[in-house]
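Blinded run. Sample ID left blank on purpose so nobody reads anything into the name before looking at the predicted structure. Input follows.
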Amino acid sequence: MNFITEPAKKIPVCYEADVCVVGGGTCGVAAAVRAAKLGAKVVIIEKNNRFGGVATTGLVNIWHSFYDIDQKEQIIAGFSEEVMTPMLKEGTAVYFPQNKNFVFNPEELTVVLDKIVLQNNIKVYFHTYYAGLLCEDAHIQAVIVENKDGRSAIKAKFFIDATGDGDLARDLGLESYVNEGIQPSSACFFMQGDVSYADFAELIGAHGEEFELDNDWGWDCWIPQLENIAMRADSHIKGLMCNKADDLTQAEFIGRRQTSGFQKLMRKYQNPECALVNTCSEIGIRETVHYRTKFQANEYELLTGKRYEDAIVQGTYNIDIHHPDGVGITFKHLTGEMEIYHGKDCKPILRNWRDEMDNPPPIAKFYQAPFAMLVQEKIANFIPVGRMINADNGAFGALRVMVNLNQMGEAAGVAAVDAIDQGIAIQQISGVKVREMLKKGGSAL
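Blinded prediction complete.
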């Protein structure tokens, strides 16, 4: 690689805060809001023109249940509930107990997130890119950003990396790894036209090659208030690591090509009224790199419902692993049920993972993950949170969904404020105290 030398120059400090959150997906917003509610002066940096990440710019309009597997005991509250409550009242979100999920209009979620952030007096920089950091004696001093004002710095007492891929963690040189067979990305889109009666397996099998489409597994979701329009996720972008610039660029091209191909196939062979309404403005990245912390979440402990004193995540969303080759998916449920799909053919292979255990424990009503999962051991005033979490392939398949990441974000915000208030490093923070503070603030049950 060739190099050039950038001349040294003074960089103006555009803002100073207690807590700086880099990344405005729902996980980052949850962190910022929880820190602000505890009295911290908070700034949040977002490269897009809105908050929400995969839920808004990525068009993935589904959040999973706040209840245990019996739909009796509420196990998730806090930020996720605060967001969904007004949307349910307004009809911009709907809860389906039988499916154990919420569906919502992403445009309306954007408005709700704006309101929550502004109500909590959080300083916001949209259209602002993280460009680097300054670190001395294991403390981050400032992050460097680029926006319409040029290059500037934001100073803070504590920093939360909610970039998804761990951009700050990378620049800090934290130890990283890549799970074997990373889950591929998807380009979601809104399509007008009823295709609910279509035999996708037959259509793709007969005509997919004409539109450069694989026999790929996919799903769709209703959008509240939008008649005859559905969100669709019908393909995967295989073999690319979207934390790399070239791969991310190619993924966007491939995703739009797949989106266009699916819509054209449906219009030609199923419903001539099919039309693209909206395509994601950012690819839906499921997984890239992970960063080492004090604890790695693992599939066995998650599926068997191990309990932790410092639990900061509670959930029921099943292990959901999109196959690396991009043409199938595997689900593992707390009940033991297991389904494996291949391609558009919706006849699953059924198994029970509990039958493969010598002495299976009682079925867990929900799982937990501990605060230690967020604590890296190198930098005193830093937490990485989001899809870069330290989890094996199976545990990651469950923990990566938004309602779980939102809880991690809230825990990061609480821990940041506690570290500032006590004047200690993140490694010295009590996870049990973090859980108690989350409970006191209504963010844990």
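Unblinding after everyone has recorded impressions. The chain is about 25% helix and 25% strand.
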